[in-house]
Each structure stands twice: as structure tokens, then as C-alpha cells.
Amino acid sequence: MVPLMWYLVVAAILFSIGVFGVLARRNAVAILMGVELMLNAVNINLVAFWRYLQPDKMVGQAFAAFVFVVAAAETAVGLALIISVYRNRSTVDVENVDLLKW
Amino acid sequence: MDLKLITWLIPVPPLLSFGLIVLFFNKWKRLSSGIAIFSMVLAFLMAQVVFWQSALVHGPKLAEEPIHSVIPWLATGPNPEEWLKMGVMVDPLTAIMLFFVSITCLCIFVYSTGYHNVGMPEGKHNKKGELPEVGTIEVMYSRFFAYISLFAGAMLTLVVADNLLLLFVGWEVMGLCSYLLIGFWFARTYPDPKRITPFQAAIKAFMTTRVGDVLMLLGIAYVYSQTGTLSFREIFEPAALAKLAETPSYIVGLSVAGLAGLLLFAGTVGKSAQFPLHVWLPDAMEGPTPVSAMIHAATMVSAGVYAVVRMFPLLHAGLGHGEFTAPMLAMGLIGAFTALFASIIAVAQNDIKRVLAYSTIAQLGYMIAALGVGAWVAAAFHLMTHAFFKALLFLGSGSVIHGVEHGHHHATAHSHAAHEGHGQGEAFDANDMMNMGGLRNKMPVTFWTFLLGGLALSGFPLVTAGFWSKDAILGGAFEKMSEGNWLGTVVFVMLAISALLTAFYTARQISLTFLGKPRTEAAEHASENVWTMTAPLVVLAIFAVGAGWAGIEHTFPVLGEMVPNWFHSFVGATVENTVELQVPTEFTPVPLITSLVVALGGLALGFWLYAWRKPLEAGERDPLAGGVVYKWMQDRFYFDELYNLVLIRPTLWLAQWTYTFIDKTVIDGFLHGVARSAVRIGEAFRVFDRVVINGGADAFANSIKELGLGFREVQTGKVQNYMLLALLMTIIIFILFEIPLPALR
């Protein structure tokens, strides 16, 4: 059987790709996609830990299902924000969206 | 009414009148003088009641049982019996004082209304403190009456006082009145800058008498510290006097009585203008003439003599140990010297009032010298007769001056244009006898009364009061002399010469003023004054002649047997327990002959030189003038200059030095130094504040700001930067806390 570590490594890689996407991409939609990657990396972890450490309980799956739901909601809110930003500033480039600045 | 109550009330009406005039009635001139005279009449009536009651009902036994009433006054201890008591006392001496003080004061009050032209119109150009135009009412008429009321009240207080302190209170109030009244025409100035102005004379009088007053206050304090009482009756207990005479004082060779007596006598030297404090009295003549008469002849200067007459038992205490006591020695020498010295000066004076001023000094010297040789009754007698005839002479001289001023006004109004008017009046000296002459027919009442006063002053035999009192003094001195007492000899000789000079200058004065022909237009046009001025002259003239009959020595040939020596038996009783009075047992011709010779000789010489030989013509010099000695006499032996050089200049110099050095340099310098160093310290603090505190605070604030500016750069506003940071932080925290993951291995 594939050891737990492999899943974790895959999840870590996936998470890192997500982090990279969030930090490095200019496009707000791409950042949102990075966030999705990170969430999914977490889901892999949750499911993997459930399967290997406590398969008799449904906790991991339930958490993963919650994360899907929350991710969907978050994406919806995020896209709405991006559309709103685009409407106001005609761009989705986060370099140009710096209203939090001093 | 009870005599004690009346005695208490005697000084009250004049004092009340002073208050009323000053506070309420000063706008109404006639009302003010009316109040003043009415109050003086009240005081006069009460004083006369007390006197006649004393003289007729009580008689000499009044000395043993005086009218005496005291109240506790100053709380000087827990026990009311020990308090300082204030009270009034009438013994024979007080009674006689009340008699002549009230008469002279009343006469002078009435005279003042005429002198200040009551009923005349207000002058258009009159100003306060300046001599009013001739024939116009005095501007400060009400004020004048307020002052003389206060004066009369104070004098009566002094007379009825039963203790030294109350006496001193009256004494000082009179000093104040004297100052106020000498300087009454305070704005008056003279063309001659050397001539003293009333303002300066007032200050001079006040300062000079102050010297004596301070010493007298010391004497009073000394008596109080030694006896614990100031009441005359208690001090004069024979036992108390003996104790004072035996206790030695601070000064070797002087008993307590001697030292206290000398100090009290110093007060008299100031008040009665004795040498060396005589300089103020002649200059006090700058005041209005009624003032000169009242304060500087009849009453206030007499108060000085009264004080030593009153305190004589103390001054005399301890006589048993020697020929005379220290105070008596001082009195004898100073009195005799003053009498001679002032008489010499009076011979060369041309101001009618100054002659009288010097004669006043001389006559007061007479009384003092009489006390020095123990002739107590004679001194008291001369005190009374002198008050009458000197008040008469002063009022007479005032009448003359008033008449001559009118004459001058009359003359200038005719011969010059009217617009020259007032300024002319100041250049003409109405007091100068050289401007008079021939007033005999112009002013008959003044002439005859002045003549009587002058004869009384010179001691014209038998008919005048001055003769009897002077004769008594010379007799007293001669008796001492015949006992082999050198002081008696000195006093007798000096007083005899002084009497000769007195008669001489009196004759000179009368001749220059009234006899001969008028020497100026002013004298030509002079006229007799209103009745308010002449009536007091007549009243005083009666006393100047008649008062002598009360004190004729019982040893005097013929008259002595006919007329009892009432004065001696009545007034002399005052001190008979404490002083050995001289009672001459047989007639001694020497003093009588001396007094006849000097009086008649002096008068004859004076009248011969100035009237019979050839009356002085206008512009002619005094026949004595020309010599150096005469110049010295005219310039009063340069005592004013000497005092100016020795006392006043150094005082002014000291004051200037104190001002410039002590005050300006030392004290001000110290204060300025303190102020300057405070400013310096303040400036240093300011630097510290600016550099350290402000700078520190600013630097701190700036550095915070710089820090903020630096950190501001972190806030890029870019989401990704923040997230990167968050990631880095997370990684760092993980590394720092070395999260162990044992399960993963």
C-alpha cells in the first residue's frame, strides 16, 4: 500500500504550488485559483490522515466535505469581489489594487 | 455744679469747636468764628468759676486739698489700682494759670476776628496760603479759628492735667498747632531770598522744639520707671522726692531727680525758646500776629516755663546737699544767659515783632533764671504778668502792622495806578519799624495801650505789673547772692543788665513806632483799627497794669503793709511742703534800687536817643548802627548760620550721603544684584529648557516620526506582500519553536 508519507508529500507539493500561485500571480482570478489549490491540498491531508490513522471514524471525510462547501462559498465571494474591483478600476491586476496602502 | 466736673469740662468746648469747624462749618466763615468764640467764652467762664472758687472759697488750703479727680486710664497691670491714671487737678498754681490763660485766649480770639477783617468783602485775587489783599477777609478764616480753638483746648488740657503724660499730650498738640499756625500763610514768599518764609519757619520751629520734646519724653519715661507713677501729687510726696534725690542715676554725680529734672528742663528749653534752642521763636513771627501773641508769647512758650514751675519740687529735690541742684544750676545759667543774650539782640532788630520775640525769649529766661535761684513764687508771678503784657504788646504790634498796611494800601491807591495794586504790597515791609513813626496820633488806643505794655515790660516802677514781678525776681537772686551763692551773683548781675537793655529797646521801639514824624506814606495814612482789635488791647492793658498788685512783697516800704501779698500766700502754698520758699524778713534796698535804676535809666536812655534828642527822619540810619557789634546783634550773633553750618548742613549731607550711598548704592545695589542674578538664573534655565527639555522632547518625537516613516514603507497596500510576510513569519515561528513531529518519522 502506498505509504501515508507519499500523500503528504503530494499534498505539500500541491500546497506549495497554491502558495506560489497566490504570492506570485498578478491576476486576481489566478490567486483565487491558488487558494483553491491550497484548500485541496489540505483536503488531501485530511482524507489521508483519516484513512491511515483513524479509519473507523468519519471525521476526516466530514471535514473535507465542509472544506468543499466553504471553498465554493469563498470562491463565489472572491469572484464577486474581483468583479466589483474590475468594475471600479478596470483591472484585475493586484499590483494595481493597493487601496490598503497608507 | 461740682467743681471737679467743671474742671474736666474746661478744655472740652474749644476742642469740640475745632472738630465742628473742621468737619461741618468751615464753609461759613462768620459761623466758624462765632463757634470758636462761643466755645472760648464757655471755657473762659468755667475757668473763671474755678479760679474764683479756688481763690475766694478754698484759698491757700487748696494746695493741701486740691480739686482732684482721676480715672483709670492705661491698663498697665492686672490690678486696676496700678493702672496709669488720668485726671484733672486744680491747685493754686493751676488756678492762676487758668485765670490768665483763659483771659488772654479770649482776648486774642476776639482780636483775631478784627485782624482777619471779618465783615469785609472777599478779595478777588486772594489765594490760599498767601497774605490776603488789604481790607479783605482771610481766605482760610475758618481754618484759622479751628487751629486756635485746638490750641486753646490743648493749652487748657495742659494746665488742668494732674500728671506728666496728659501734660505732655497737651504740650505736643500745642507744638502741632504752633507748626500749623506759623506756616498759616504757607505760600507767602519774599523778594529777599535770605528772608525766611512762613513755610520754612514752621518747619524750623517744629524741628527745633522736637529736640527738647524728645528729651522731655525721656525724662517722663525716666520718672515713670523710677517711681511707677506720673501723677504730680504722688511724685511730690516728700518721701518719694527724698528717695529720688538720694538714688544715684546712670551718670556719676547726678541723682535720679537731677537727671530727670535736667531732661524735663530740656523740654522747656525747646518750648520756651531758651538758649541754645532759641532760634525758632523769632522766625515764628512769620505767623499771623494773633498767633504770635497767643502761642509765641502768652501761652505756649509760657507752658514751657509752667512745666518747670510745676515740676520744681523734683528739680529742687536734694537741695540740702549743696547750694543748688544740677537742674537749678542749669536753669540759672541758661536762663540768665538767655535773658541777657536775647536782650542784646533785641536792641538791633528793626522788625517790630522780632523785637518782641527776643524780648519774650529774654523774659522767659528771667523766669527760668528765677527758678534757678529758687525764687519760685517770683517766677510764677512773672509768668502771669508777662502773659498779660506780652500778649498786649503783640496784639498792639499787630494793630500797628494792620494800620500801616491799610495806610500803605491807601497811599498806593492814591499815588499809583490801581492796577499795580497787590504786587506792590509784598515789597513794602509793614513790620519794619523804620517804615513807621508818628503813629501816636493816628492810632491813639493802640499807642496808649502799647505804651502801658511797654512800660510793664521795662518794669516801670510802681504802676505796672512787670515792675513787681521783675523786682521779685531780682530780689530772689539778690538774696541768694547775699548768702554767698555765686550762682545768685551771676543771675543777679546778668538779669540787671538784661533789664536795662529791655527798658532801652522798649523805649526805642515805642519811639520808632509812635513818636516823631511819619517816615513813610504808609505811616502817614495809617488809621486806628476796628473795636474788635482795640477792645482786647484795653482789657489786657488793665491786667498788664493791675495784675502786679496781687503780688507786692510784704516787706516793700509802705505799699507792702497796705496791700497783702496775696499771690505769695495763695500760689506759694502749692509747693510749701516740698520747697523751702524764700520769705524775705526785712526790706533790702539793693534789688529795688537796681531795678529802679535799670528800668528808668534804660527808658530814659532809649527815649533820649530815639525821641527827645532828635526823632529819626525818613531814610536815616539807627544812631547805634555802623559798628561791627551792631551788625552782629542785627544778625543775631550768627546763630542761625552756625546751626546751619554745624547741624543742618551735616544733616543734609548725611541725608544726601545716606540717599546716594546707603540707599542708592548699597540697598538698591543689593536689590538690583538680586534681581539681576535672578534674571541670569532665569536665562540659564531658559537655555536649559530650550536645549535639553524642548530639544529632548522634539528629538524623541522626531525619532518616533522617523521610525514611523521608516516603517511606513512596509505598508505597500499590496495583498501579496502581506501574504508573503505572513508566510515568512509562519516559517520563522515554526523554526523558532521547532515544532516536533515525532509521529511523522
Could you explain the architecture of this structure?
The complex is a heterodimer of chains A (102) and B (745). Chain A has 102 residues and is mainly α. Chain A has one domain (4-89): Helix Hairpins. Chain A has helices at residues 4-24, 28-53, 59-89. In chain A, helix 2 packs antiparallel against helix 3. Chain A is elongated and about 50 Å long. The mean pLDDT of chain A is 89. Chain B is mainly α and 745 residues long. Chain B has 2 domains: 3-414 and 431-634, no CATH class; 642-716. In chain B, 69% of the residues lie in helices and 2% in strands. Chain B is elongated and about 165 Å long. At the A-B interface, helix 1 of A face helix 30 of B.
Topology:
The complex is a heterodimer of chains A (102) and B (745).
Chain A: H1 4-24, H2 28-53, H3 59-89
Helix pairs in contact in A: 1-2, 2-3
Chain B: H1 3-9, H2 12-25, H3 29-58, E1 67-74, E2 84-90, H4 92-115, H5 141-160, H6 164-182, H7 198-227, H8 232-235, H9 238-246, H10 256-271, H11 280-283, H12 289-298, H13 300-310, H14 312-316, H15 326-347, H16 352-372, H17 376-415, H18 421-427, H19 439-442, H20 444-458, H21 465-482, H22 486-514, H23 521-524, H24 531-546, H25 559-562, H26 566-571, H27 589-612, H28 628-634, H29 639-712, H30 719-737
Antiparallel strand pairs in B: 1-2
Helix pairs in contact in B: 1-3, 2-3, 2-5, 3-4, 3-5, 4-5, 4-12, 4-17, 4-24, 5-6, 6-7, 6-12, 6-13, 7-10, 10-13, 10-15, 12-17, 13-16, 13-17, 15-16, 15-22, 16-17, 16-22, 17-20, 17-21, 17-24, 20-22, 20-24, 21-22, 21-27, 22-27
